[in-house]
């Protein structure tokens, strides 16, 4: 029975190239475990950047054929996407090797450290990265297990979503989408927001209420109406809404070009980012850092140097009068926030979105239509390509074109281009001078390459 971090030494990850899995794999390697893994994206003779970087860390990588599972393997880790028919699962069962889910292992890791668990339906990766940078700048040598690559860690030649520090603190993302957030018992729990995403609001509120009960100290975003009632103590909380007071208040927000500025309890902050939502993320990070003992001035100094995370409002450059930005936005609130964050930059925003999963798109159809339509100015446009299908069983009874037609009926400029490879050619005449072209989507590992393709074709 695997109950603590000391109950195993040799661990194997099925689906190790996934963001959440690769982060834990790297962390365990960093604390001295023997780590190996396989992935369906690892093909004989094909280059895979994630595989290369994992192997550079000393993590053994295999094709998904069962060859990596050995009688000496102590533990096998699976993600929710791994089915029982996968060769490694069959072999692990035949060898009677314990199999646990990624979230269970993360909960075991979290018990071994003073953990800060970042929860909420939007902003977890950015807030975790900001908090990690603040704690590191303050000399606390924290660790992080994240859902996205920090640019500062990527510069070291790593994937960027994990790092082992010598200090006591560990920053993790606590995922509500699969309910695994209830498995964590953190020293500090942080709740950023509550929006309909993978689950209905009532289910989310129940999950976050358990998250609160499991946290020693609980910090809440008072400016988010659904999160606010879960407060443990207003003095611990943060807000940017003047009508919702809290211990840490952000004011004086301004966006000039690709930078934002604001104050937190009269301490000035300036970041090389866009969007009010990034002020909110920085406010959350600075608040939690203050509870750990890092003063706001030190947090402001750290965030002035913050380099961002991969595919979060990432500016790829400007070409022929068009700014190209790539973003991981994938739920209604995130898409709307991403569009709004680009509007101060140019007279026109042309946003492209690739929904992922037929079930999630069907579940969120009305919310996508409402949030995106409300975010668009009269001169802005939304484009979509067909829903990303990752395989498995799915009822394909909805199309991205259905969302486009719904948005068009609300009087907004909305367009469908089924094959994203036709997008640049089709949209070119819509890209006037002083335009932001915003790419949005998640879960599809090829999106980063698509962004580069768009840049090359502009």
Automatic annotation (TrEMBL):
Pfam families: Mur_ligase (PF01225), Mur_ligase_C (PF02875), Mur_ligase_M (PF08245). Gene3D superfamilies: Mur ligase, C-terminal domain (3.90.190.20), Mur-like, catalytic domain (3.40.1190.10), NAD(P)-binding Rossmann-like Domain (3.40.50.720). Residues 118-289 form the Mur ligase central domain. It comes from the Bacteria. Keywords: ATP-binding, Cell cycle, Cell division, Cell shape, Cell wall biogenesis/degradation, Ligase, Nucleotide-binding, Peptidoglycan synthesis. Residues 13-113 form the Mur ligase N-terminal catalytic domain. This is Mur ligase domain-containing protein. Residues 311-443 form the Mur ligase C-terminal domain. GO terms for molecular function: ligase activity. The lineage of its organism: Bacteria, Pseudomonadati, Bacteroidota, Chitinophagia, Chitinophagales.
């Amino acid at each position: 029975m695997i109950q603590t971090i000391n109950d195993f030494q040799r661990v194997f990850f099925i689906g190790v190239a996934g963001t959440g899995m690769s982060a834990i794999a790297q962390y365990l390697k960093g604390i001295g475990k023997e780590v190996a893994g396989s992935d369906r994206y690892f093909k004989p003779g094909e280059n895979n950047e994630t595989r290369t970087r994992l192997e550079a860390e000393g993590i053994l990588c295999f094709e998904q054929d069962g060859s990596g599972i050995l009688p000496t393997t102590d533990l096998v880790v699976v993600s929710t996407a791994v089915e029982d028919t996968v060769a490694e699962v069959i072999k692990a069962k035949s060898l009677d090797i314990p199999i646990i889910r990624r979230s269970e292992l993360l909960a075991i890791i979290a018990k071994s450290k003073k953990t800060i668990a970042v929860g909420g339906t939007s902003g977890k990766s950015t807030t975790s990265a900001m908090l990690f940078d603040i704690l590191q700048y303050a000399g606390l040598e924290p660790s992080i297990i994240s859902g996205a690559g920090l640019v500062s860690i990527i510069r070291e030649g790593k994937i960027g979503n994990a790092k082992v520090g010598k200090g006591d603190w560990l920053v993790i993302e606590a995922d509500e989408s699969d309910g695994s957030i209830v498995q964590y018992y953190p020293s500090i729990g942080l709740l950023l927001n509550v929006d309909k995403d993978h689950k209905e609001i009532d289910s989310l509120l129940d999950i976050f209420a358990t998250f609160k009960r499991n946290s020693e100290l609980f910090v809440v975003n008072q400016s988010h109406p659904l999160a606010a009632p879960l407060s443990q103590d207003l003095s611990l909380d943060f807000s940017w809404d003047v009508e919702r007071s809290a211990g840490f208040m952000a004011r004086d927000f301004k966006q000039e070009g690709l930078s934002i500025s604001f104050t937190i309890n009269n301490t000035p902050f300036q970041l090389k980012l866009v969007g009010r939502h990034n002020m909110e993320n920085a406010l959350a990070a600075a608040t939690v850092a203050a509870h750990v003992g890092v003063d706001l001035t030190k947090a402001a100094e750290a965030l002035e140097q913050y380099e961002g995370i991969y595919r979060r409002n990432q500016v790829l450059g400007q070409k022929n009068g068009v700014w190209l930005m790539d973003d991981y936005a994938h739920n209604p609130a995130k898409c709307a926030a991403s569009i709004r964050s680009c509007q101060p930059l140019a007279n026109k925003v042309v946003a492209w979105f690739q929904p992922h999963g037929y079930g999630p798109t069907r579940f969120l159809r009305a919310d996508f239509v409402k949030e995106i339509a409300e975010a668009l100015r009269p001169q802005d446009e939304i484009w979509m390509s067909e829903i990303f299908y990752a395989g498995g069983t799915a009822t394909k009874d909805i199309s991205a074109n259905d969302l486009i037609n719904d948005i068009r009926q609300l009087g907004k400029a909305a367009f469908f281009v089924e094959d994203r490879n036709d997008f640049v050619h089709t949209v070119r005449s819509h890209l006037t001078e002083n335009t932001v072209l915003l790419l949005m989507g998640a879960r599809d590992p090829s999106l980063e390459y698509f962004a580069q393709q768009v840049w090359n074709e502009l």
